[in-house]
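Case 222 in the screening queue. Each case pairs one protein sequence with one candidate compound; here the compound is glutathione. For every case the pipeline is the same: read the inputs, emit a complex structure as tokens, and attach any notable structural observations.

Predict complex for case 222.
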Amino acid sequence: MTYHLILGDRAYSSWSLRAWLLVDRWDIDADISYVSFLSRDVEAQLERATPSRTVPTLVLADGTPVWDSLAVAETLAEAHPSIWPEDAPARAVARSLAAEMHSGFGALREVCPMNLRVAYQDWDPGDGVAADLRRLERIWDYALDRFGGPWLCGEYSAADAFYTPVAARIAGYGLNVSESAAAYVRAHLEEPSFRAWRALALTEGPDLPWYARSYPQADWPG
Ligand SMILES: N[C@@H](CCC(=O)N[C@@H](CS)C(=O)NCC(=O)O)C(=O)O
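Case 222 output:
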């Protein structure tokens, strides 16, 4: 089946990145189109996929819209089951990790919006972000220790795709994490699909000023 995947700006759309990683890593046949965040009318641009109002949106061959990244992952996994680990305990933990990302880490998401065009250093992200980072370290360590790496639940799975934008935030905002978390972040920065996405993110689309921060800048660390 050929899907239609609708994404947002590559530099800024963290949820779009998650869905695209699944399509790219699993070599899934999908026509890709983009909405623009510049005009801030994403819902109107998605009119053809009603009632979707955010990206990513996956449109099935019969026109059915799937309008949430976790639903996109589950729908793609019906035809590509290896999106989730084969081993049942690893699959359960992978789903827990992806679900916690999907519903949590509000401070990190709010204070550090994904921006793949710039890196910062030497600023104070505050207690809320620090608490989110400690929680990430805890659940990443649990999964990496239990399933032996190199990805969270062994082989690369949807859980890792869901944490790629988190890794990009930790790297891009110069956030302090434990050595094991930093190693997991580096694995994402070196991962070929992420690198391909970021290369396009650097050249496609305008700079959106509302994502810019006034912190001291650094070289991108990957
Ligand atoms: N829970 C949704 C969130 C999707 C979301 O918020 N997407 C953002 C882009 S990263 C969006 O479309 N924003 C446009 C808007 O809210 O108007 C998911 O997991 O897909």
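Case 222 observations:
- The chain has nine helices and six strands.
- The mean pLDDT is 96.
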